[in-house]
Amino acid sequence: MNLRTLLVTPALVAGLLASAQNQNWTVNDINGNPVSIQDYLNAGKTVLVDISAHWCGPCWAWHTGGIMDKLYHEFGPEGTNDLVIIWVDGDAASSMALLNGGSGSQGDWITGVDYPIIGPNGQGNILADLYNITAYPTLFMHCPGSNAGVEIARTSTWQSFFQSWRNGCMPPFTNGVNDATLLAGESGVLCPGEHPTATLYNMGTTNLTSATVELLENGSPVQTVNWTGNLARWASATVTFDDVDVVGAQEFVGRVTMPNGVADEHPEGSDEEYNYEQAPEALSATVNFEIKTDNYCEETSWKLYNSSNQVVYQGGPYTAGSQDNTVFNYWWNLNPNMCYRLEVLDAYGDGICCTYGNGYYKVKSNGVEVLNGGQFGAVAKEPFAAGAAVGIEENVLEQGLNMFPNPTNGMLNVGFELSSATTVNFTVMNLLGERVLSTSKGFGVGGQQTTLDLSSLPHGSYIVNVLADGLTATRKVTVNQ
């Protein structure tokens, strides 16, 4: 059996699994502080115990996927203060060196983690034995009033994980009839013309129909929105601050008050920090997307959305085995000055780097990298703006470009003008945007001509892109043989 499957299967079973025996324990965390699960339960909290191992790849994927951090941020002590998370390295060999990313560990398990970590000096192994762990990672949920842990399944989104958590332990989330909170946004990157937003979330037991939502900068309100609508319990809405324009990088605080026109009965979580910056901009409207798959390419797919949230290009999933650890290049001809959103998805929820291969994605324009990534959970969302198209009177390459014969039996003549000696890149794409042929040649100034051999391509239509000196020009050609 594949090691990845062996380690993960117990935690992927849908829903809540069998109850464990009572776990009433106190052990020391990595700072030597005693952690008592009973103290948290007595305080009315729901407790999640994540028992992992420093060497475990699926554990690392879950740890770095962002779901635990999101839940802790929104509903932990600095949020609504309903949930407690405890991370455990259950391996008997656990040490500070390994948790800090030493040899034999998947990485640094400590940096950026605010909740208790247990492991060294046999403390984590005590809990692994107590919970009778048979596979890593295994997660246990403890509800107030009972220290019996119930195994809880991992999911690909924080919303679905939170839903199973609160459905299993409802009492901590009965916070009041009128109870509104703000959630952190998915991205602080704004496209041109976009404005800051806040996510309004109804934690109350009745529908939320009105609230006052403010955006503050340096402690002073910059806009107040008197929101109205109809949110059921656990539902959310986006509040947009249309009067606020972001220039460069700016920090704000969102604040919600007066849910349904009355004082918030549970004001914890009513403030949220928002950091915004402008989206990166490509140098031109012709963009190259390069993606390298990992060892499980069948889990990888991607989509490019335009400003109307329509999919304009997409690819994957890829073919298992034959397309693992493979680099793919695509060329996109975009609308000038429009903002786009690239989403790279991993069905398993562990990104494409770096546990099972060194996959990555890059967006480049005129050879300059606009954005890149690879380490994410279920999805990476990357906004960027397409560059301006060069005016016809300025684009010498566009003016002088000529391709013949068209249709062609395979040998395509390409004529063009250059204002200076340079290297010219020729790229041929199919109508899906996939690169099927590319070559580069050096040329002098003035009128030039070269021949592209397309005879290896199947019958059909193709886009030929020519890139030189920051200028780009394309033509549609037909191979007819």
Describe the structure.
- The protein has four domains: 3-173, Glutaredoxin (3-Layer(aba) Sandwich), CATH 3.40.30; 180-278, Immunoglobulin-like (Sandwich), CATH 2.60.40.10; 286-385, Immunoglobulin-like; 396-479, Immunoglobulin-like (Sandwich), CATH 2.60.40.
- Helices cover 13% and strands 42% of the residues.
- The chain contains eight helices and 31 strands.
- Strand 12 and strand 13 form a beta hairpin.
- It is globular.
- How many strands? 31
Shape: globular
Q: How are the strands ordered across the major sheet?
A: 1-8-7-4-5-6
- Helical amount among residues, as a percent range? 10-25%
The name of the CATH topology of the largest domain is Glutaredoxin
Query: What value does the average pLDDT take?
Result: 88
Query: Strand fraction band?
Result: 35-45%
CATH architecture group name of the largest domain: 3-Layer(aba) Sandwich
List unreliable stretches of 5+ residues.
1-20
* CATH 4th-level superfamily of the largest domain: Glutaredoxin
The CATH first-level class of the largest domain comes to Alpha Beta
Q: Structural class of the secondary elements?
A: mainly beta
The biggest beta sheet is recorded as: 6 strands, mixed
